Amino acid sequence: MIYKLLLKIKDLGELKYFLGIEFVRNSDGILMHQCKYALELIAELVLLGSKPVSCPMEPNVKLTTAEFDTHIDTSEDTLLTDPWPYQRLLGKLLYLTVTRPDISFVVQSMSQFMHSPKVSHMAAALKVVRYIKSSSGLGVLLAAKCSESLSAFCDADWATCPNTRKSVTGYFIKLDSSLVSWKSKKQSTISRSSAEAEYRNLASIVAEITWIIGLLKELGVDHNSHVYIYNDSKSAFAIAANHVFHEHTKHIILIVISFVKRFNMVLFLFSTVLQLSRKLIYS
Q: What pTM, to 2 d.p., does this model score?
């Protein structure tokens, strides 16, 4: 290997286990999973005998802060006496998202309450662990046969956070059939419309694709084909197609227009029913 000529390294053989991540190889590719790590977490919480659940969070459940409860004058949900167990559990769940995109949205929602967790937050976190119990062997498959084509799916949930009214960005990026990047994160600023939220989401995924193309180039892979970006917002596409700098979007439009042209990115309108990235912004 060329690395042996440049650096002093020792070949430890085929990679099978590293920092809680297991690697299984076959003719189809490499499966990255954290089954052992997940089972140790379940045993630590004494949930081996608990009943598994089929979803990480109930649909339309909105977790709120203690300040929000005070504002609406409700005291049914109290703060945890000791926040440390919740913080420790969330840290472990965050590490599980390395190979589990399906819990990214739920974990990012619960991580907002690290400093002042409530009883309902702990119950929601334990339900995620019960969901993991039902599918502890899930992971990310990196296909053995893979082309250099990049495709991306993105979506945004406008003003979904009841505490701040900020929107949630969700996207994932595939190299041919292999999932290489994903994110579910609350946007840093409040969007005044769903179009603005979707367009911010588009800017985020364009920046991520630009970084991935740069990484591929450093690894010796020249990406010359189109990058296909799928989204279900007609308004965001209209803004991206219009090169006039709008008053409320000119700080984002520079990212989208300049990089879409530079790296041959193609935007596609994708049906909401088929929008795969919606799993990263909804429970």
A: 0.76
